[in-house]
Amino acid sequence: xxxxxxxxxxxxxxxxxxxxxxxxxxxxxxxxxxxxxxxxxxxxxxxxxxxxxxxxxxxxxxxxxxxxxxxxxxxxxxxxxxxxxxxxxxxxxxxxxxxxxxxxxxxxxxxxxxxxxxxxxxxxxxxxxxxxxxxxxxxxxx
Length: 142
Known about the structure:
Elements (H helix, E strand, L loop, with lengths): L2 H9 L12 H14 L8 E4 L2 E4 L4 E4 L2 E4 L2 H12 L5 E2 H9 L7 H14 L6 E6 L3 E6 L1
Helix pairs in contact: 3-5
């Protein structure tokens, strides 16, 4: 493994890197540490994104009492961005996770979804979804 590959992985949002060969005990301890230090995400939990609340079960985004109905894919994409907040999510990962079985979905379609989500979140200027050119997207909340 080249040092450049490890550095690139961390710069793209990786939390850890395990070189082969490795011992199972080490892998288990690393996983336990990552889980302990990560936010507890439960499907259906209401997530606070700046001044917005996302209910991923109902696919609703609420801002100052106003409820906006999202499509299933919009809701899931926003939830994924939130769960990986401050980390770049590669476009390929998003495409594979949500649209791998859809023949008609293209990279441009993903851009449209991101654009709509940005519009939904536009009332809180602390929230940004950044396009990291050639890599993917990153959600940040200042």
